[in-house]
Design brief:
The complex is a heterotrimer of chains A (about 650), B (about 220) and C (about 260).
Chain A lengths: L15 H8 L5 H4 L3 E5 L3 H13 L2 E5 L17 E2 L11 H11 L6 H20 L25 E2 L5 H19 L2 E4 L2 E9 L2 E9 L5 E5 L2 E4 L20 H8 L4 E2 L4 E7 L22 E5 L16 E2 L1 H5 L9 H13 L11 E4 L1 H7 L1 H19 L8 E10 L2 E2 L12 E3 L17 H23 L10 H20 L5 H16 L5 H21 L11 H25 L23 H4 L1 E6 L8 E6 L14
Parallel strand pairs in A: 1-2, 1-9, 2-5, 9-17
Antiparallel strand pairs in A: 3-4, 6-7, 7-8, 10-16, 10-18, 11-15, 12-13, 12-14, 14-15, 18-19
Chain B lengths: L1 H5 L1 H26 L6 H13 L2 H31 L15 H4 L1 H19 L6 E4 L2 E4 L1 H8 L3 H28 L8 H29 L1
Antiparallel strand pairs in B: 1-2
Chain C lengths: L4 E10 L8 E11 L4 H14 L22 E2 L2 E2 L21 E5 L8 E3 L2 E2 L2 H8 L21 H11 L6 H5 L6 H12 L8 H14 L10 H5 L7 H16 L11
Parallel strand pairs in C: 1-5
Antiparallel strand pairs in C: 1-2, 3-4, 3-5, 6-7
Classes of the chains: A alpha+beta (about 650), B mainly alpha (about 220), C alpha+beta (about 260).
Chain lengths: ~650, ~220, ~260
């Protein structure tokens, strides 16, 4: 087993990032123009990286799968973004944000990365305000804050229930400015199908032009993947339809290790599944738990209308079990508790797989106007989807896959195991450990793009000798040919089943055996089932039309093909990790009261997987995690 | 300034300002017409007073120029708008997202109103010249011409249609002008809509009253 | 939220590519749950088409939460369908009656060429943003976020304009295919904030010029855009844009060769 070098700078945790920046190699302004960087994905991490790299003078080639970069799924984040500003004078600090994030991640994140994240968090808010993000404000004109799960301070900045949208528009406008100035070339409706590696270094990408069907090659001196997470492996998740693992997975197959794939976040407050033909699940922001109280009836099978169940017959279980954090317990904890209540037969709705999120008390205390000002758009969204009015009756919610903490392994520089391949945002594994706290994804994406990558990519380019290459190089041709042959293989199957039917089948397996609760027997079963589904997929999928123009079924098929491989790795990783931590809950490893039971002796490491070839078991590499600043302790939110 | 005038927004400013000139004119014209309800002499004396100074030439020049500019901008924008839309939908909106007929058909209304204005000027300004004497002053007897013209039911109907159309044009146009000129604000938006509606109705009713009255009493 | 089942007849615009003329095709959507969204209803129709070996109806969509702005087509002459303040992905089938016949067309405008079926190219809107729909501030330059106080009313108003999702429904609904609501929402958002003041005039001049250059029509204040807007962007924004444009013209000569003071 090779040793993974995380390249954590020396020195105290507070000085690491500053020292590292100082000792990083620089590229002089005249030379920056000669370097090109490819950025794949234009969400918060990708757009902010493209903008900042363009500002520095690099020639940036940005790619997105959407018709416009502003449609990236970051746009859907609702609740807010954390930053250690301590504007509320409630005892917040960089150190507290660092501590909360490490603890929230159940001690499975790298300390140095998390500290840096907390350190730059305040700059993110400054930057976004400067770009015109209309954050919520107090009457005095200062910025407003709200609280989020897993924290006892108010450090979350927000723009109504559309914070992700406003931040993305900020990053997007910064990038479009660079497009205007000619520093960023933007190519939309392009899907990355391969990473091109030359002499062991990432030097380009192979993409499919989704409109013309053409396979195109682009070269650069470094490649950034900011392509998001893989929750869609579950088919039903809160992710957008086009969210896929494809770009990361292709890089994985070219040698980038995939870390902690089993760390998936199941978000506690989503609108429950309504039926067979549901295409995705909708999140109801965690911020709702600021004013909403979660409960189920005390007795099993209580079919009364929620408004008819008297106070004394309700179990506000989060407040009961976690008196100090109450309804603001972290996501993994809150999700698991909802699952327990439903397993006990006390779930509500027709399916019995839902719990109530009740605003009656807050409406009584603050008035409907105040609640509407805070959550109006969320209430409206809930009403549109379910046909129920949450001002009049409690919302029904249930956990759903939402975020993936796992991703491509990166070192402190956000560089993967392939030199020159950098990975940012949800696509990497770095900052959230085994569970991400609410309002931290936006923070991480922007930290990576605005503040980390511009520095570390400069260091790479300044210190690496790179041959001049062009897309006529054989490596590009091989890569393009491989992409083309995979497409013709898919098109040639002409089987009987739709792509979605396979995706749903995989999703069911993943949710059943690798979802909120996992155990050895189930994971083993999943590891038997998934290869069978994959085999059938490659023999029986049906893709109508041609590959030489827009073909939405072909796009989906390529993504599902990669999910069918990733799913297996997730189960493998979940099976190997014989402990419970954060979002990874192994039923064999729990405390008497059903909390996650870590095994720090054997599993205080990052599991990074190396591709070994199709249908071969991937090899495992371990990066040991050391905690020098935060004591390894059992998480308690009681 | 050429950039301003060449832009769609600039042209809307021009249309708004020229539209307002005409909106003001038609209101004044309508009010003057109401003198027929006082007496023919009062009506003729008013007309005489208006046309005896040099001011009439200034006013006419402004009005003609405003009209030409308004029409020119309208044609240019409408042409551009049709090109921009290219094709229409197979089904038209019926529900909450449907918009007012007045706002949708401004170009058609405008074309008819232009035809009406030209005919109207031919009929009256360049119509038969009768003379009368009011308080010892010899002047044109416009009232007589009017009574003659409005004896024909077809002519009255044509007038009614055109004047209602003019009112209709104003119900949208007046409010829309404030929008185009950048003077709209959320707080008085609804008030302005009502004002625009009232303006159009008052102008139309005021104008209609005259031919109807003359047709009925003679 | 107990759903029932309804049956519908869909007349859907099918067009192979930008140069194809296109025509309507009729499909039956049977056993549609009223709890399903309009796009989920189309998913079911598409699954049947694929199973038969036909090409599915192509339409843009992604988040299905009404925020990414990817989805959008016209149902019975109305952009995003009959429900106000709603994108087509959030339009649920409980808003339709059993047996209804629905005509589904792509957004129509010269500036939005059809790519395939209900999918159009709205990149013209991105180009309008590129022409100054931003604040020029390099990473690392920002002062403390609370250094500039913003009156809550201004911040709220700016936010209301900034909620635009760039779906293009305003253009689609407008008989003139005007992008005035879209362009004005961005001009308003930035002109209402202290951070947007420096480039305020340039922005108004450049964005209006870009809007015209893309071949959009002009605003005739029909209000169709506002009625169709899933985010309730107000028509007042257009008035503000016109004012900004006039003031910029009167007080400053255009000088945009430097790409927005980059």
């Amino acid at each position: 087993m090779s040793k993974l070098d995380s390249k954590i700078p020396s020195g105290s945790i507070e000085s690491k990032w500053q020292n590292h920046k100082f000792s990083s190699k620089l590229v002089n302004p005249a030379n920056k123009r000669k370097h090109s960087v490819i950025v794949v994905g234009t969400g918060l991490a990708g757009a902010s990286a493209a903008a900042s790299l363009g500002e520095l003078g690099y020639k940036v080639k940005a790619f997105c799968v959407h018709e416009s970069p502003r449609r990236a799924h970051s746009v859907a984040a609702q609740g807010g973004i954390n930053a250690a500003k301590n504007y509320q004078n409630d005892g917040d600090s960089v150190y507290r944000l660092f501590y909360d994030t490490i603890k929230g991640g159940d001690f499975r994140a790298r300390e140095a990365n998390v500290f840096r994240l907390a350190e730059v968090s305040a700059n993110i808010i400054d930057q976004m305000v400067a770009q015109g993000v209309p954050f919520a404000r107090e009457y005095g004109g200062t910025l407003a804050n709200r609280s989020f799960g897993g924290a006892q301070v108010s450090r979350t900045f927000y723009a109504r229930g559309q914070t992700g949208q406003q931040l993305l528009l900020g990053a997007y406008s910064g990038m479009m400015r660079q497009v205007d100035l000619g520093n960023v070339e933007l190519r939309t409706r392009r899907e990355m199908l391969d990473l091109v590696v030359v002499d062991g270094k990432a030097r380009g990408v192979t993409v499919r032009n989704l409109v013309s069907g053409e396979i195109e090659s682009y070269e650069a001196d470094a490649v950034v993947l900011a392509t998001g997470g893989y929750s869609n492996v579950f088919f039903l998740s809160t992710n957008a339809m086009a969210c896929a693992v494809t770009a990361a997975w292709k890089a994985h197959k070219r040698g980038a290790y995939f870390a902690n794939p089993c760390y998936t976040q199941i978000h506690p407050t989503c609108i429950p599944v309504h039926g067979e033909n549901q295409s995705k699940l909708t999140l109801m922001s965690e911020s709702l738990r600021n004013d909403g109280r979660v409960w189920v009836p005390k007795v099993q099978g209580d079919k009364r209308h929620p408004n008819e169940i008297p106070e004394s017959e309700r179990d506000y279980y989060l407040e009961r079990v976690y008196p100090s954090f109450g309804n603001l317990a972290p996501r993994d904890v809150a999700s698991r508790q909802a699952k327990y209540r439903c397993d006990e037969g006390r779930g509500v709705s027709e399916t019995g797989r839902a719990v109530y999120l009740d605003f009656a008390d807050s409406i009584k205390r603050l008035g409907q106007d105040k609640i509407s000002e805070r959550y109006g758009n969320l209430f409206q969204m809930y009403d549109k989807i379910t046909g129920d009015d949450p001002y009049k009756m409690p919302m029904m919610i249930y956990p759903a896959p939402h975020y993936t903490m796992g991703g491509l392994w990166v070192d402190y520089n956000l560089e993967s195991t392939i030199p020159g391949l950098f990975v940012a945002g949800e696509a990497n594994f770095s900052d959230h450990g085994a569970n991400r706290l609410g309002a931290s994804a936006l923070m991480q994406g922007l930290a990576d793009g605005y503040f980390v990558l511009p520095s570390t990519i400069g260091n790479y380019l300044g210190g690496t000798k790179l041959e001049k290459i062009s897309t006529t190089h054989d490596a590009f041709k091989f890569s393009a040919d491989e992409a083309k042959s995979e497409i013709s293989k898919l098109m040639g199957i002409k089987g009987n089943r739709t792509v979605d039917s396979f995706h749903k089948e995989l999703g069911n397996i993943m949710w059943e055996y690798c979802g909120m609760g996992r155990n050895k027997e189930g994971l083993k079963k999943a590891l038997e089932l998934i290869p069978k589904v994959r085999e059938e997929f490659w023999n029986n999928v049906r893709i109508p039309g041609d590959a030489n123009y827009i073909n939405t079924e072909l796009e989906k098929a390529g993504r599902v093909a990669d999910f069918l491989e990733l799913g297996e790795l997730m189960c493998q990783d979940a099976l190997e990790r014989e402990e419970s931590c954060g979002g990874h809950f192994r039923e064999e490893h729990q405390t008497a009261d059903g909390e996650a039971l870590r095994d720090d002796k054997n599993f205080c490491h990052v599991a990074a997987w190396e591709w070994a070839g199709t249908n071969k078991k991937q090899s495992l590499h371990k990066e040991e995690l050391t905690f020098e600043n935060v004591h390894l302790a059992t998480r308690s939110y009681k | 300034m050429s950039g301003f005038l060449g832009s769609t927004v600039g042209k809307k400013y021009i249309m708004g300002i020229t539209g307002l000139i005409w909106a003001g004119f038609v209101l004044a014209h309508m009010a003057g017409n109401l003198l027929i309800f006082v007496s023919s002499d009062a009506y003729n004396a008013y007309g005489h007073a208006l046309t005896s100074g040099n001011l009439i030439y200034v006013a006419e020049t402004v009005l003609v120029l405003a009209l030409i500019t308004h029409v020119f901008c309208a044609i240019s924008l409408t042409k551009n708008n049709r090109e921009a839309k290219q094709s229409r939908y197979a089904v038209s909106a019926k529900g909450q997202k449907r918009v007012s007929l007045a706002s949708r058909t401004m170009a058609v209304q405008g074309s008819l109103i232009l035809a009406f204005v030209i005919l109207h000027i031919i009929t009256f300004k360049y119509g038969t010249y009768y003379e009368t004497t009011v308080n010892g002053v010899v002047m044109r007897d416009l009232a007589r011409l009017m009574v003659e013209v409005f004896q024909s039911p077809a002519y009255v109907v044509w007038y009614l249609v055109c004047l209602i159309l003019l009112g209709f044009h104003l119900t949208h146009g007046v409010g829309s002008t404030f929008q185009s000129l950048g003077l709209m604000n959320g707080s008085y938006r609804d008030g302005l809509r009502k004002l625009s509606l009232t303006y159009g109705v008052v102008v139309a009713l005021g104008f209609i009253a005259q031919p109807l009255y003359l047709f009925i009493i003679h | 939220m107990a759903g029932k089942m309804i049956n519908l007849i869909l007349k859907v615009w099918r067009q192979k590519g930008p140069t194809d003329t296109g025509s309507f095709a009729e499909y039956k959507a049977n056993n549609v749950s009223t709890d399903a969204s309009f796009l989920e209803m189309l998913d079911v129709v598409n699954e049947e088409l694929v199973t038969k070996g036909d090409e599915p109806i192509a339409f843009d969509h992604d988040c299905r939460e009404g925020i990414c702005g990817a989805c959008g087509f016209v149902i019975d002459g109305e952009a995003h369908g009959p429900l106000k303040s709603t994108t087509v992905c959030q339009l649920h089938m409980r808003n339709f009656k059993d047996g209804e016949v629905l005509t589904i067309e792509p957004f129509r405008s010269k500036a939005f060429p059809v790519i395939k079926d209900l999918m159009v190219n709205r990149s013209a809107l991105d180009r309008i943003i590129t022409a100054g729909g931003y604040i020029s501030t390099n990473t690392g330059n920002a002062v403390d976020a609370n250094a500039n106080l913003v009156p809550k009313a201004d911040a709220d108003e700016a936010m209301s304009s900034a909620t635009c999702i760039q779906c293009g429904a305003c253009v689609a609904a407008c008989k003139n295919a005007s992008a005035a609501l879209f362009t004005s929402a961005k001009i308003s958002h930035l002109s209402l904030l202290p951070q947007g003041q420096v480039e305020r005039k340039d922005r108004a001049l450049r964005m209006v010029a870009a809007m015209d250059a893309e071949g959009f029509g002009s605003c005739t204040t029909t209000g169709a855009c506002e009625a169709a807007c899933p985010k309730d962007i107000s028509l007042v924004n257009i008035s503000r844009m016109n004012r900004e444009f006039l003031v910029a013209n009167v007080t400053k000569q255009p000088k945009h060769q430097d790409g927005g003071a980059g």
